[in-house]
Amino acid sequence: MGSLSQELTLIMCKAFKALGLPTEHARVQISGQGQAAQFQCNGAMACAKIARKNPREIAKNIIDQVNQNTDNKDIFEDISIGGAGFINITLKDTYIATHLKNLIKDVRFGILSVEPNQTIILDYGGPNVAKAMHVGHLRSSIIGDSLRRMCLHAGYEAIGDVHMGDWGTPMGMILSELDLTGFDGEITMEMLAKIYPKASAACKEDKNRMALAREATRKLQDGNNYYTNRWREFIDVSIKGMKNNFDALGVHFDEWKGESDAHPFIKDMIEDLKSKNIAVESEGALIVPVAHDDDKKELPPLILLKSDGAVLYGTTDLATIIERIKSHNPIKIIYVVDQRQALHFEQVFRAARKSSIAPQDSIELIHAGFGTMNGADGKPFKTRDGGVMRLEGLISMAIEKAQIRLDEAALAKDMDDNERDDIANKVAIAALKFADLQNNRSADYIFDIDRMTSFEGKTGPYLLYQTVRIKSLLKKADAQNDIACEELKITNSDRGLALLLSELPDHFDNAMKLYAPHILCDYAFKLAQEFSSFYGNCHILSEKDEILKLSRLALCQQTYKQLSLILNLLGIEIPARM
Ligand code: ARG
Fold it and tell me: Smaller CB count within 10 Å for the chain: N or C?
């Protein structure tokens, strides 16, 4: 089964087909708020344009066709022409009830599953070894982890790969700095955090110092034993630090690979591209031209090797595609990376197509770019003293604020410190994640700790609170298990919530199609609000009509289940109580 609009689309498809109209215009959609009908199909206008006929006449034929079909006799309360040729649809309450009953019984709540055994690799997080993680990595992690959860729920084999920056000259800078200090004890995260900025500044200033870094990089990449061991040591230390951060955020990775994992593939790749004349020499460098004749903007070539023989970011990204195809044979790779790297990915993707490393018809390459998280001044978010805010700092700031918010709202009052801390933690992460995910991915947004931690408005804490509230209502009704509701009763006060519940598959599919968790955020917020008015307008526990009471409890339970599912897809954990 699917959503109501998906079911209606099938009914329309049949009618369109019978009339010889193109079925791609048969799509039925949910009407916008405040509209007279619940659903609409606008296909008659498109068909009229093609056939050069009157759209209202075509709409009438479609409606007659639908009404003629006896299968449809218990579906429509009203199906009629509106305006220039829209088909407006309102359903019988009994039909909505039957649909919803099936949806409640379905473990997937109407969301269809994709064909099995299709793998998608998601590339997100992308922290750089030896550098502390900053808020720029926050968006990538939060969005990427949510997309991974969505892919899994859709039925894909989804693999999240952190793809660390663990290769290239920065590694040589650190190794040569360790050489210079003569230090060969155990490396710690604090040390690394100091060594790298120091080495990088020194290399910028001094050519000879830079030459040492290059030499160390080359030795590492050629497999020198000593350097490889040292490198492994600080990679491990770095990963430990990253894991702490990602655990605190509740972000999961299936693989802890990095740019270095592409290294074994680079040599053969370059030979192959050279032999096919796809990689060519230019001013001493080796490049892949990727411009097309019809490009509106000039697209510079992808540089594989610099004139000094060093490989670049694009080289490792291209070779990583080879590595990923070899290890997982994915149907798709999704890169959740800052929008400002759009040109880089365009170059890499074009080079991958041109070289047949990633053939167009077997693997999709998607750059799901995102905008910047800004401070109140509209510039990239900084600490109060103007430094780059680290991830740890940001998380503790949110937790502190969540504690204050819990006090203000008089929540979690009678709990011991442990449970209270746990709730504050969950509220803080919900606030951070929801504030990020609710924005259109590619838009910039302003980081506003006061707003995002509020229990009012479109926030993570508000959704947590509403969800927990429904749970306690169900508990009061003693509805621990699924409510055995024989008959769903849809009255004027239930209809809005019932219709909205049945929309879940539509929003899920859209969010998947556009790699857009904000669509799920919008839906969850709408659902929570609709539930609020349902709760305000209806008798539930005090309802005298036993059947109606059970029916309403079933709606409550379904709302709880759907909110829980969406929060889970957003990577937001729900406290047991609040
Ligand atoms: N390490 C990179 C950065 O900090 C992000 C890596 C993104 N993933 C990729 N395959 N290029 O900007």
Answer: N
Which atom of ligand 1 has the smallest separation from the CA of 345? 11
Domain closes at, from 367, 401, 417: 367
User: Residues for the chain: how many in total?
Assistant: 578
Quick check: is 426 in a domain?
no
335 ligand 1 Cβ < 6 A: yes
Helix, strand or coil for residue 59? helix
Q: Residue 245 half-sphere exposure, CB side, CA atoms within 13 Å?
A: 24
Q: Give the pair of three-digit tokens for residue 542.
A: 């005090």
Mutate to test the pocket of ligand 1, among 341, 367, 370 (most ligand atoms within 8 A of CB): 341
| Co-location of 261 and 152 in the same domain | yes
Q: Is 343 found in the same domain as 264? A: yes
The strand pair at 76-82 and 86-91 is best described as antiparallel
pLDDT digits (tens, 9 = 90+) for 96-136: 999 999 999 999 999 999 999 999 999 999 999 977 777 77
Structure tokens at 484: 């055995």
Same domain, 158 and 279: yes
Q: Does ligand 1 come within 6 angstroms of the Cβ of 337?
A: yes
Tell me the per-residue pLDDT of 241-265, one tens digit each, with 9 for 90 and over.
899 999 999 999 999 999 999 999 9
Same domain, 264 and 355: yes
Indicate which residue's Cα is closest to atom 7 of ligand 1. 126
